[in-house]
UniProtKB/TrEMBL annotation:
It is found in: Bacterial microcompartment. PROSITE patterns: BMC_2 (PS51930). This is Microcompartment protein CcmL/EutN. Belongs to the bacterial microcompartments protein family.
Length: 122
């Protein structure tokens, strides 16, 4: 069984420019945002799916917007994305990577009565 989704990606420096680029992209073509990630250093990436032509059009529009704002980093379209890749990307799309706390941070949190082990909001 073939999977006919295309994956589009736009990467910017800064969340504000990414939001503007994503907004422009989804207003331009019939695509769906599946996730975004913010690995580090202000670099953020948004991922779109849809049919190949729509994703190409959306990525082109979003890229243009990011370039106008001066925060464009890269973009790409993968036509006919393998289903396993898409499943991996959407397994937990908004999970933030938790940074390890130092002993000093844990001591300060304990003094302030903060307990990240019980019911922390992520």
């Amino acid at each position: 069984m073939k999977y006919h989704y295309a994956l589009g990606m736009i990467e910017t420096i800064g969340l504000t420019s990414l939001i503007a680029a994503a907004d422009e992209a989804i207003k331009t073509a019939d695509v769906r945002i599946i996730t975004y990630e913010k690995p580090d250093a202000g670099i953020v990436t948004v991922y779109f799916v849809g049919d190949v032509a729509a994703v190409q059009e959306a990525v082109a529009a979003g890229t243009k917007k990011a370039k106008e704002l001066g925060e464009y980093r890269s973009s790409n379209v993968i036509p006919r994305l393998d289903k396993n890749v898409l499943n991996h990307l959407t397994s937990n799309p908004f999970k933030k990577r938790e940074r390890k706390r130092t002993v000093k941070q844990e001591h300060t949190e304990k003094k302030l009565g903060l307990n990240h082990d019980q019911g922390s909001e992520q």
